[in-house]
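B., you asked whether I could sanity-check this one before it goes into the benchmark set. Here's the sequence:
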Amino acid sequence: MRSPTMAGLSTRVYKTARDVGPRAALAVQHGASDEPDEDVRPVVGPGGHVMAPLDFPLPAGARMLPTPIPAGLGVAVWRHDMPDGAAAADYGGWCETLSWLRLGLCDRLLDTVLVHLSGRTSGGEPLLRRQLLKGALADVEIERHELRAMLAELDTADGTYFPALADLHERITDSERALLRLSGAHGFTAHGPGALAHTSELLGDVYVGGGADVAA
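And here's what the prediction gave me:
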């Protein structure tokens, strides 16, 4: 059962990710105010990586990795052997909230893709009227509802939650990739919606996937 505090934070993180973007949402996720505070210690993932706003103070000994695509959205990736206490006391709950952040980014990506497609035509007909495209968008919408249901049922107080959490993040990534494919080549450009999807997927790798896909 999620506490009212966690539920409120998840809602705030989700809405910030959807309406503003990853930098602002990560500031909320890490517990910061609007102004970076030296006392805020971003949470480290199991692989020793951190993703946080670019303007967060860099801890002594931390090394910022060359990740230009997230940086373009105001997000930095660090590599650092964080001291004891840098990880969240309730890492499962923290990752659950991160799942809501990624769902917010997925919804933001959907809005971006719809705006792009609304101005595209093929054979004089708007692409959004094509049955194949409408069906693909419907599949993404169904998946988003299923992901929300999965999150609502997730109990991070149970020590066996992590496989379900990993599956959830993998499915969010699949949904984002499906949206990129609907955008054609535009979806995979560094300055297009691909940047948002890449940053979201990297968040999953850092905090749920052990950082396997992040440069050491």
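One thing to flag: The CA atoms of residues 69 and 142 lie 29 Å apart. Otherwise nothing jumped out at me.
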